Amino acid sequence: MKAHKVLPERAPLDMPRHRVNERGQALRQNSVSFFYSLSTVFSRLFILLVTVGLSSYGIIEMHGVLSTNSITSLQWVFLFLFSLNFIWISFAFSQALLGFLINLKPRLIKKAETDPAFKTAILFPVYKEEPGRIVAAIKAMREDLLKQAPGKYAFFILSDTNQANAWLAEEKAFIELFETQDENCPVYYRRRANNQERKAGNIAHWVTNWGGAYEAMIVLDADSLMSAQSMLTLSRRLAAAPGVGLIQTLPTLISASSLYGKLQQFANHCFGPIYAEGLAAWHGLSSNFWGHNAIIRTQAFAESCSLPILPGKAPFGGHILSHDFIEAALLRRAGWGVRFDTDIQHSYEEAPPSLTDVIVRDRRWCQGNLQHGRILLAHDLAFPTRLHIFSGMMSYLSAVLWLSLIMVGLAIAVQAQLVRPEYFANPSLFPIWPVFDAERALELFIVSMAIVLAPKLFGWFAALVNWRRCRQFGGPILLTLSTLFETLMSALYAPILMVAQFGVVCHILMGKDSGWNPQSRDDGALSLGQVTRAHRGHTLFGFILAGISYGLSIEMFYWLLPISGGLMLSIPLSWLSGGAKRARPFTIFGFLRAPEEKRPSAIVKSLLEQINNTPKQEPIDTPLICLDQHAGLCKWHLAQLPLIDAPKPDEFHAPTVTAEWKIRHASSLQQLEKTLEPVELIALLSQESAVKQLKTHGLVKHHD
Predict the structure, then answer these.
(1) Which of 94, 494, 600, 605 is most exposed, with the fewest beta carbons within 10 Å of its own?
(2) Could you say which of 1.10.1240.10, 3.40.50.150, 3.90.550.10, 3.40.50.2300 is the CATH number of the domain covering 120-379?
(3) From CA 462, how far away is CA 537, in angstroms rounded?
(4) pTM higher than the cut 0.85
């Protein structure tokens, strides 16, 4: 293969930096039909009425439970926390109910489509990912696109990898893609020397250098997969809606092998469409962006989405971490419609494989979502946009509210049991008795559980009455058993996640930064020792909670057992959550079967074939020795340099200077590898002159 730079000619677009507070614009004309607008209004009215109605009922009932005689200060705190939580679950229920009702009716009106005159870029941002999986996905998608849309798409692998061994592993794996290059669907590769602003900066770097040649871009994640038909549909719909800046698909989960992965995958396939229909209905043209599996109008993104830099230090200042919500907000503020099309099939992603992996991911997501509080009250944001931002924050703050509610309820019980009540604390002719209405409390508890579990019931019923979907889940019996099992396991895992998220929120509020780590792509199997170290605090807290409640009353013990039980079992539950072997019994009996598992779609089948045909690549522990042993890789690596954002020859760059000094004083390549710091090794590999010095000083073979 001829070693040449695998990048097209630059086609820059200007991307001006925006401020938090700027003037907004009205939606562009012809963005949406009258019927679509009317449907959105009715959907929002439905959500409002159901949420307000249910919330009012719950708050009034809880007030009645507590106010048999008079409400104490601690009970007022309990009522306040209960009200916030009940409003939140009522809002979630209203969206699921709306989605369920929409799901029952046939889809009569199809969204407008027209053949696009433009070419679309498919962006693959990667950061220290397993390159073999990316190669397999691109091969599968490229093969599909060459059949259905030759000349319409181009792939860009946008690497932000900042470790030398991972960088060379990427190049070694990706060379195969360029050896089979086809101009009707080319694949390009670019690694940034400076990964400032993380994924948002990675995308922005592409826009400002090559975005001018492509009117649209489909943004994927490292674990994403889309069929050619899905991408064609996205391009056609964007072409038919000149006022729309972004169209988000509903990604479904695939390739889960662990128990926790299968639980998420089943829930995503069975319950996810119900939630998604409800969200799409009331979002209208003010929808959200999840960072991947979506098409974006490049010019609109360039004009609107250079994110503001927040004043102050991390975790709340600096660059915005969770960029996707804010990019959708800025697009909408600039007058571009943001749409969520739930009917586009064969859009996929993968899930974290274990409970501990979810907790690690939540650490990063939580910081990003809480950081959004700095933007929640920004000027001229659409009201649905503010709800998206607030919902993202509440997805983690709700853990604080629920745990606080439990602890306050426990404190009330302790107070009633151990503290002598002051029956005449205030001047009064009658004593104040600390009592509550137990029968009314039980009724409210049943209603609350019904509201929480109803979305699962909606998803189960919607799948049950659709015989084709029901068969994909294994038939009505397996569908029902899987739904019950998923509900039980979710109830056990929920308190562990609640306590973990509470700790994460406190950690961030204390000012600690989360860092930036890639998501785990293996089966999540951890040893019992690793799991014990991760969850011993949760286990101890569960036993303390159970002990206190048992000491107060057996009724209180049983009341809190769904929470304390999951915490006490957190170590075995977490151990069971990861590992393909541990999930095998559930797979054998057909539990948690997902539609794509038994009969995968053509694109998923193609991906699996490509993965099986792609040899496992050995990790590169010594990058310089690897380059010395692989002349072709060395030539190809040098052909990609210098990068656009690499240090200029006359610019002082300390790691490059020290690396060159170590080259001159090294006795062998092995000795040089041991003495180089990671930043120096990256600097060496980023400079063609530095790599060639290895030959000058006799450390490597001749690579002409």
Answers:
(1) 605
(2) 3.90.550.10
(3) 40
(4) yes
